[in-house]
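Sequence dictates fold. Below is an illustrative record:

_____
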Amino acid sequence: MFSLKNFGEYLLSVLRILVDERERGSKVPSYLSEMGLYVLYRQLPVGDYIISSDCAVERKNIKDFVNSVVEGRIFDQARRLSQSYYKSAIIVEGDVDYAYTTLKAGAKAFHGTISTIWLNLGVSFFFTKDEYDTAELLFSMVKHEQGEFKKSIIVKGKSRASSLSEKQLLVVSSFPGIGHKLAIRLLNTFGSIKNIVLASAVELSTVKGLSRSKAEKLVDFFNAKFEGLREPSKQNTLSLDKWKDFKG
């Protein structure tokens, strides 16, 4: 006989994963859904995937990883992960040869980064070949944490931005090719996000560390027409708020 209590117990027995809203553009959540996980979307303070109360994961494709190393973002992200979840990890997706050939110090910079983060912050690194491989790894983690040890999902960590200045910095640092340091320089130079967006490539390139070619790409990004996105599939996707209602 159906009852809310039985339904709530059923939901708690289902393997699930909490996914940051920014990951909707990735194929990883849909692969996880196909594997049988309930995918719960939310804006997460830290990490891209919450596995359990103890475990969170940041996912980076190899190009994003290299950019985050060059711009220094990777260390701040790893620090916030380690402060919130004692079993945290970063998944690097793609061919690591790209990092060896792109980073200025090559393999030394690559190995130096991951070893420094692991030894100083305790954040582990995993390497996958593509999005499906990443999904399989995440699924294995969920099975271990929720299936074997029956751990629940808990969102931890401080919001990425609280003050107006922090929110402005968060927005600018999310622009392609712009990390934390460049974002500060841009805001200090132009004074507002509006002024940055309205600036020409020549004006943008006067900022230290922002080349003319990168400035032109930024202007192209600002002027690009939005082509729309498909509505996310509702299959195997459960509202976090509804899940909370049945939690206990």
Notes: Strands lie at 16-20, 38-42, 49-50, 55-61, 87-93, 124-128.
